[in-house]
Specification:
Elements: H1 3-16, H2 25-33, H3 37-57, H4 64-79, H5 82-94, H6 100-108, H7 114-133, H8 139-160, H9 168-175, H10 178-196, H11 199-222, H12 227-246
């Protein structure tokens, strides 16, 4: 396997998880050109978190609610809160009345307002209740597929969106494109089918639709996408994928 590809994969884990493998600026640029690696990282995250969640089901006297709460603890311990912070910033920006420039200023503001808090609280409530409702035998494939869908959502937003300004988000938006998205989509579809059969493809449809809508909404509200919009798509993609799985 080429050294640069290995560096990109390591950077994917360093950037998307709290695993201390590290990444350099050069490797991050290489990752931006290979965003389909996000799908591989998402599958590993889902495997670890799903394995923990399933293991909790065999421990006596652990209720579904406690298991769901501990699953979320494991999820965010492994992935960090960087993407949730993006959801909070986007929530603040969308609820800001004023010009496009004022909304962008709110997104860049380090403080979290009522909109951001509301978006995060509602996201947590829905995520918690959905994980609690999933059958134990479905937990592992559900969390693998949901995390892959979350990463596919990020690739979609970065590939189809136009950056509002130079920054971390623009680095991924400029180096990805339609081909990157297609490769990521094929990989995600493969994982979904392995986990749920042909029905797994249906699980990917809501995240794809939500991410496309997010790109259009960001274009209208902010004039394009940025790192926060990409990060928020991760949280929304995971959530709607799990909701879809709960309805299978």
């Amino acid at each position: 396997m080429p050294r640069r590809l290995l560096d990109s994969i390591r950077s994917g884990f360093g950037f998307l998880t709290t695993i201390p493998v590290g990444f350099s600026e050069e490797a991050l640029d290489s990752l931006a050109s290979r965003m389909w690696i996000y799908i591989l990282v998402g599958a590993v995250i889902g495997l670890v978190v799903g394995g923990i969640s399933y293991a909790l089901t065999v421990i006596p006297h652990v209720s579904n609610l406690v298991r769901a709460a501990l699953t979320l603890v494991a999820l965010y311990a492994l992935t960090g809160f960087i993407h949730l912070d993006g959801l909070a910033d986007v929530g603040d920006g969308l609820l800001k009345h004023g010009t496009m420039q004022e909304r962008l200023r709110v997104i860049k503001d380090p403080y979290i307002g009522v909109g951001g808090i509301a978006f995060c609280v509602l996201s947590f409530l829905l995520l918690f209740s959905t994980v609690a409702s999933i059958k134990p035998t479905t937990l592992l494939p559900a969390l693998i597929t949901a995390e892959v869908a979350a990463k596919l959502s990020m690739v979609e937003v970065a590939s189809l969106g136009k950056a509002t300004h130079q920054g971390l988000g623009s680095r991924f938006a400029e180096k990805s494109g339609l081909l990157t998205f297609i490769v990521a989509l094929l990989l995600a579809a493969l994982v979904a089918v392995l986990c749920f059969g042909v029905r797994g493809l249906l699980v990917l449809l809501p995240p794809l639709a939500v991410s496309l809508g997010l790109v259009k909404l960001a274009n209208k509200a902010f004039g394009g996408i940025n790192g926060d919009v990409i990060g928020s798509s991760n949280e929304l993609g995971r959530l709607v994928a799990l909701i879809a799985i709960s309805l299978l």
